[in-house]
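Module 6 notes. Inverse folding takes a fixed backbone as the condition and produces residue identities as the prediction. Think of it as a translation problem where the source language is geometry and the target language is the twenty amino acids. Below is one complete input and output pair. Work through it position by position during the lab.
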């Protein structure tokens, strides 16, 4: 793989103390969520029985369950090959669909005292090629070996094997599909608890747990209380996607899978996850999107990869708009991961244009903010050519900045202006064309009364990246 880049970066790294102590209740993040935001890029690995059947999940219109024998071709799956490609793409954490909507699990779950289900037969153990293998273990070990924090996707409200669709259990008296087992609502949610308890006990350092579709309203109160206790005691640091009310570390869905969120991307929200500057909950966004065209999450042999230019736009509209990017990886039925060049080119673009640590910038200074000034400045030699700005707010004491302006000057002449509301973890501003500059000013127009703004980073950058083929 050949790649070329020209990167010019100028940085002001500002110390993370505030000008005064907050005395009112401004919503602040947990240390776990601050760390999660700093990782910026995750992987959603969509690989389960629906992949083997060439479908995108199991819907209620299904006439038969995908047969476990469909997994025969995946007996040679190599999770380390996935991890290497993810590492090259810049992925820092991942979730695997250990149980998707079909109900098929990639490990053999234990079942305790559920009358209607003495054994969970719809799992990888039902395929003779995988007897004695635990694919969750193999995935987990491979991710950790390559420095990627592993986690799990678990569709709490969907399980075709047990006749559960959209959080609703199939009513009594319904004729089950061949191989299907129908449980009562009480039995089903007891089984859900047992699955999550087993994963939490076996993998106490899991990084993220994905509740796709959120937590169903039908979840019984006693099971909810037990899950709250389980998360607090077994996996207190885990990030839960849409785990509203279950944990303190919640990431929210921004209402789109395009990678281009339309809603305001404040880190604070109300209890239901609606973002706003005065929210009482710190629920930052996670933007999940596919690499395959057509919203194909599981492998689609008729699809192709989105272009690098499109994925650049996704990055700028997600990570560059205060939203972690959850990029889809969809191995095929044999366990092979396609579009390797696309992932590697995307990783090259991110690492070359947006270094993750200030020490990798060619030049930077550490300067505390001035107590009697509401502006932050970045100065450079006159005539420096830039085409983008990177802004990062210090968030240890909350999301302080509510309105700001950005001015770019060359010899005291204004050459670029922009305004915005939130900065939060990161904003990337793309200039309409390259400009010569000597000063960047970030002026804070409005902030929370009892939260004094501080900036973590201001960078003025030129990045010409292209990938020859």
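Target side of the pair, the amino acids:
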């Amino acid at each position: 793989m050949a790649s070329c880049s020209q990167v010019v970066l100028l940085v002001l790294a500002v110390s993370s103390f505030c000008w005064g102590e907050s005395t009112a209740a401004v919503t602040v993040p947990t240390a776990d969520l601050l760390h999660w935001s700093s990782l910026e890029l995750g992987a959603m690995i969509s690989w389960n029985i629906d992949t083997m059947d060439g479908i995108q999940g199991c819907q209620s219109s299904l006439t038969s369950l995908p047969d476990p024998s469909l997994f025969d071709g995946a007996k040679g799956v190599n999770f380390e090959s996935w991890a290497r490609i993810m590492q090259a793409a810049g992925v820092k954490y991942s979730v695997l669909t250990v149980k998707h909507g079909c109900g098929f699990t990639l490990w053999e779950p234990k079942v305790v005292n559920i009358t209607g289900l003495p054994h969970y037969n719809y799992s990888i153990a039902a395929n003779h090629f995988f007897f004695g293998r635990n694919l969750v273990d193999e995935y987990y070990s491979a991710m950790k070996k390559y420095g990627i924090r592993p986690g799990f996707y678990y569709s709490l409200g969907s399980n075709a094997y047990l006749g559960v669709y959209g959080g609703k259990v199939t009513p009594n008296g319904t004729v089950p599909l061949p191989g299907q087992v129908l449980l009562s609502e009480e039995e089903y949610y007891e089984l859900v608890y047992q699955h999550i308890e087993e994963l939490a006990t076996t993998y106490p350092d899991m990084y993220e747990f994905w509740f796709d579709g959120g937590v169903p309203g039908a979840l019984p109160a006693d099971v909810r209380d037990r899950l709250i206790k389980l998360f607090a005691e077994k996996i207190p640091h885990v990030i839960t996607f849409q785990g509203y009310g279950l944990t303190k570390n919640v990431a929210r869905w921004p209402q789109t899978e395009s990678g281009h969120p339309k809603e305001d991307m404040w880190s604070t929200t109300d209890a239901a996850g609606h973002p706003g500057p005065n929210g009482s909950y710190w629920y930052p966004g996670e933007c999940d999107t596919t690499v395959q065209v057509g919203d194909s999450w599981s492998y689609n042999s008729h699809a192709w990869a989105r272009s690098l230019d499109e994925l650049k736009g996704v990055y700028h509209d997600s990570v560059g708009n205060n939203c972690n990017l959850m990029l889809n990886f969809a191995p095929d039925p044999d366990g092979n991961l396609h579009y390797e060049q696309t992932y590697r080119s995307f990783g090259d673009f991110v690492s070359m244009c947006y270094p993750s640590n200030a020490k990798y910038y060619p030049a930077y200074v550490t300067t505390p903010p001035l107590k009697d000034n509401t502006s932050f400045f970045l100065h450079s030699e006159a005539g420096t050519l830039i085409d983008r700005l990177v802004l990062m707010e210090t968030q240890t004491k909350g999301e302080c900045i509510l309105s700001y302006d950005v001015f770019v000057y060359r010899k005291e002449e204004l050459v670029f202006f922009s305004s915005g509301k939130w900065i939060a973890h990161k904003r990337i501003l793309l200039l309409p064309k390259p400009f010569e500059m000597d000063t960047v000013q970030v002026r804070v127009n409005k902030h929370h009364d009892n939260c004094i703004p501080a900036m973590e980073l201001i960078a003025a950058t030129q990045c010409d990246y292209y990938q020859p083929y």
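Reference fact for the lab report: Residues 1-7, 13-24, 361-366 have pLDDT under 50 and may be disordered.
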